[in-house]
Amino acid sequence: MKDAGFTRELSRDPALKGKVEPARVSFTSRNKYKLLTAKGEKWATLTGSLRREGKVPLVGDWVAVDTAEAPAIRALLKRKNLLKRGAAGGRKREGEAVPMQNIAANIDKIFILCGLDRDFNPPRIARYVALAELCGATPIVLLNKADLCEDPEARVEEIRELLPSTEVCALSAAGGEVDWVKGHIRPGETVCLLGSSGAGKSTLINALIGDGTQRTAAVSETLGKGRHTTTHRELFILPTGGIIIDNPGMREITLPDEALEDAELFSVIEELSKGCKFRDCGHESEPGCKVLLSVESGDLPGEALENYRKLRVKGQ
Questions:
Q1: Considering the entire predicted model, what is its pTM?
Q2: Fewer beta carbons below 10 Å: N end or C end of the chain?
């Protein structure tokens, strides 16, 4: 179980008493869960009591499963962390919290994959970084499809200036350029992949595993949008050590309330301001304001702009 990330601390979880064994959730499908156990893969169901309590396992969760012929998950082990986002389409009404969507659990690092084609979007990357930091995982930005970009290093520097505390690397997953990525996944460490459809997440996983585990599809040349080849979350153990979780593509990234004042988002606004028509743009209603255009497109949350305005007023 060490290969799946099992630790000494997890072994002391009180839920592992009795006729149960530890297992890690690698895939979920309605009320069925594919588990990684010391005896191989197993499919299990969830007990009615856990479901009534709202304790539904996610990919990446550790659980206590009984040893019966038809196994059932008896308990959730304590989570290290939880990756979540505001639910897609879940814009909050005034005075209400953003509805949440849980994504995965027990993550050490989050690889944010962005294609160096029409997918390249610095504000969206910054929002992914905000999600990672809120989760307590280490964000790393991977700028994929470097072979399609005339100057990938310029893009790398652009993201480094925007997010100075975040590691950034340009690569071509389709070309097998994944050594740098492999070097950032240690044995027993869990990495979660985030990015929009067509960014190359499945291609990267295939390059890391060394086979065609994940199905891939070409990006539309007309729209520059990826096709949804990954439709579910799934956890894989890499042959070189480490664990990776693939995710369906996400274009809409609504941040949880507690992330709206993230300093990285203010850096995004400062960067966008450089493209405004007027140097003294207040991002209120001015024509040619890049910040307002980003809010209208959904790439920058309006709440972040409001907080930025308040902060700027206080600093004057």
A1: 0.77
A2: C
